[in-house]
Amino acid sequence: MHILCLTVTFAAGLSSAATLIPRTVFDSTSSLTQYFSYNYPWGTDHNGGARMSPSHAVISSAGTLTLTAQKVSGQGPATHGGQQIPINYLSGAVFAKQHFTVPTGGGFIFSGSFQATTTKGTWPAFWLTAVNGWPPEIDMAEWKGSGKISFNTFNTSSVVQTKDVAYGNPGSFHDIKCQVRDRGNGKDAQVKYWMNGVEVTTHYGQDYVGKPLYLIINLQMEGSSGSPGPSSNTTYSIRNLEVTTI
Ligand SMILES: *[C@@H]1O[C@H](CO)[C@@H](O)[C@H](O)[C@H]1NC(C)=O
Ligand SMILES: *[C@@H]1O[C@H](CO)[C@@H](O)[C@H](O)[C@H]1NC(C)=O
């Protein structure tokens, strides 16, 4: 009894990190839907030319989520920011059922391996955005059809730290990691980004601590990535996704 108590205390003291989304999340549709819901938290449309549909977000092989954008016609427009946006694609989006709130003194690590396109008119993303109001928003990775990958942290719509990096071999998987934690003042977040194991940049998000965030993975089209987008199917695949506390 005494030994058991010691063991439990010792183990708890050693491992403070908790796994919030395990790497097995994309092993099956039932695991996907245990942790994620389909479309955006607010519905099927956002700021581009794709309307999200659950049939376009599938486990393509054990361990891999694939979002497919398919050119379509006959869809009514999306409305965003008072503007009407023509819908030219059906595509896929998923968002985590749990929210991520950076606590005072703590934070999270979001990581995964991504096969994303940089073709004009394709706009894959892996991002965090505010549950209430806006910002916070952290684009842990987005590809805006330019041949680059972008990492962004918003204080306001016009005050934003942006880092664009050349993105080679879009047909291959690239490892992305983002650490979001209390900067140390119980108020702002420090955001560190890595690609393929190499640290890329550090940003700071104003007043991010204590604000719940959605985690979204989506393949938007056109919009900020240019138009017209491709007429053949575009895919965006993710594997080894994991979210842990730090
Ligand atoms: C956003 O706010 C944080 C905290 O005040 C600051 O460190 C950072 O520089 C700001 N970002 C920009 C782009 O000014
Ligand atoms: C394009 O994607 C859709 C949705 O996944 C699929 O039903 C269709 O068969 C695909 N078309 C081709 C030519 O692969």
Automatic annotation (TrEMBL):
Signal sequence annotation: 1-17
Spans traversing the lipid bilayer: none
InterPro entries (alphabetical): Beta-glucanase-like, ConA-like_dom_sf
Organism: Bimuria novae-zelandiae CBS 107.79
PROSITE patterns: GH16_2 (PS51762)
This protein's UniProt keywords: Hydrolase, Signal
Domain (GH16) ranges: 14-246
GO terms for MF: hydrolase activity, hydrolyzing O-glycosyl compounds
SUPFAM superfamilies, sorted: Concanavalin A-like lectins/glucanases
Protein name from the UniProt record: Glycoside hydrolase
Coiled coil region boundaries: none
GO biological process, one term: carbohydrate metabolic process
